[in-house]
Design goal:
Blueprint lengths: L5 E6 L20 H11 L5 E6 L2 H10 L2 E4 L11 H10 L5 E5 L8 H13 L6 E8 L4 E2 L2 E2 L16 E12 H7 L7 E5 L11 H16 L3 H9 L4 E2 L12 H9 L10 H5 L6 E4 L5 H12 L11 E5 L7 E2 L12 E7 L7 H14 E9 L6 E2 L2 E2 L7 H11 L4 E5 L8 E7 L3
Parallel strand pairs: 1-2, 1-4, 2-3, 5-9, 11-12, 11-14, 12-13, 14-15
Antiparallel strand pairs: 4-8, 5-8, 6-7, 10-16, 15-19, 16-17, 18-19
């Protein structure tokens, strides 16, 4: 166990040659520096965040965000200085046991990846002296006019090529002492921590900057924002069971399906069950046109005053519905910590891409004390422009395991078993240990 103080270190300098003001120029309404500082500050396993720079604007920005700003000497910011000397100096200026070195040029790195990488470093085997993120490379490599990793006379399939690791420098974790003695952020026996190709994107050219912006915009809105925007705005071709795929306005039978989208109020059957928990405030994720929350307000008002529980905010969030109180993806809720007593979601989780599910449930634990989730366990024939709406069809055990990471007392409250008209589970739990 590698205990001690962990410092997140972000080193930036002025004078970027390929992209002027790269670190602080507008990037999807923010900046590469701001994204990385906020990410480090939000990581519960990082004790402090330090920004080292020769640029006053960058240092002021870092301070305003809550980081510690250290002015770097000019001689360690030139294009000619050896990076080994820079690494040594950076480490000497910090008082800690371990350094989590983060590059601002990796804006697509997920919070969950950073957290799990630090957890791995803390508990990794003694044979490793540091951790470095890598991307697995399976390509036909040549050097000095010779193949590196395959025999051209017996040409293999790409999936059968040996794995090579490419350092991407999204995360490097090393002890402060080793960073000083070795003058590097990579040890002699580092643990190769694999991350996705998308997270490995390193912004070094304007072309890469634009690609990263495109990916980041999708992340802000949610991977499937465009799909659900089409559904709510009745654009594209809808596919439904027993009906010919078509545009809105062509087939009256199909139009009824279009019109019903967002109005199904999947939670109405669970209204009484939900209200038995006497929630003081509710947020509904995947709310559509907010019909469930309207029912909760009517139900609460129908009770005698002494039995009413709602006395806080009642808010609906949806990825694309124009009549939701808040339009946002489940994994990035613009809500305050602990703002709600109960978070509900009905037939929404199976619509969330698998890579966003755990991020979403983690976000649920940030904004709400309790969850009540109704999740479909079957695929759906509904598609928009050929894209399925149920993109995360998993077992009840899979869903419960993820929920219990952030809501330790979560249990399956109800399960409609196979053979019934629909197969769902309802998970209820709180985030108290």
């Amino acid at each position: 166990m590698r205990d001690g103080k962990y410092t997140g270190l972000i080193a930036v300098r002025k004078g970027s040659q390929r992209i002027p003001n790269k670190n602080i120029r507008n990037f999807c309404g923010t900046s590469l520096l701001e994204i990385k500082v906020k990410q480090a500050l939000n990581c519960k396993m990082i004790d402090e965040v330090v920004v080292s720079s020769d640029c006053e604007l960058m240092l002021e920005k870092a301070t305003s965000l809550g980081a510690i700003a250290i002015k770097r000497e000019e001689k360690f910011c030139t294009n000619d200085v050896a990076m080994n000397d820079v690494y040594e100096q950076l480490a000497k200026e910090i008082d800690c046991e371990h350094i989590v070195y983060l590059h601002v040029t990796s804006p697509l790195l997920q919070d969950s990846t950073l957290l799990s990488a630090i957890e791995k470093y803390k508990n990794m085997e003694s044979e490793y002296d540091s951790l470095a993120t890598v991307e697995v490379v399976k390509k036909y490599l040549w050097n000095d006019k010779k193949p590196v990793n395959y025999d051209p006379d017996h040409h293999p399939r790409s999936q059968d090529l040996p794995e090579y690791y490419a350092l991407n420098f999204a995360i490097n974790i090393v002890s402060r002492d080793l960073m000083i003695s070795r003058k590097n952020i990579v040890g002699s026996s580092f643990y190769p921590y694999t991350i996705s190709e998308k997270e490995s994107v390193d912004v070094d050219t304007m072309h890469e900057f634009q690609i990263a912006e495109m990916f980041y915009k999708n992340y802000l809105k949610g991977k499937d924002y465009e799909k659900y925007s089409k559904l709510y705005n009745k654009k594209g071709i809808m596919t439904k069971k027993d009906l010919e795929p078509n545009y809105y306005g062509v087939d009256p039978a199909l139009d009824k399906k279009w019109d019903r989208y967002g109005h199904a109020c999947e939670g109405k059957r669970q209204l009484y069950d939900v209200m038995q928990f006497k929630p003081t405030s509710i947020v509904d994720i995947g709310c559509g046109y907010n019909e469930f929350l309207k029912l909760t307000l009517l139900y609460d008002k129908s009770l005698e005053p002494r039995w009413r529980s709602l006395n806080g905010p009642v808010v609906g969030v949806d990825i694309a519905c124009p009549e939701a109180d808040i339009v946002a993806p489940a994994h990035r809720l613009p809500l305050e910590d602990g703002q709600f007593d109960l978070l509900v979601s009905f037939d929404c989780m199976e619509h969330i891409p698998e890579e966003e599910v755990e991020l979403s449930i983690k976000e649920f634990s940030r904004v709400a004390r309790r969850i009540y989730l109704q999740i479909a366990l079957r695929d759906s024939p509904t598609k928009i422009d050929g894209e399925p709406v149920h993109v995360c069809v998993k077992t009840k055990e899979w869903w419960l395991d993820i929920c219990k990471k952030y809501f330790p007392n979560a249990t399956i409250r109800r399960w409609n078993r196979p053979g019934e008209p629909t197969e769902h589970i309802i998970i209820y739990g709180d985030n108290k240990e």
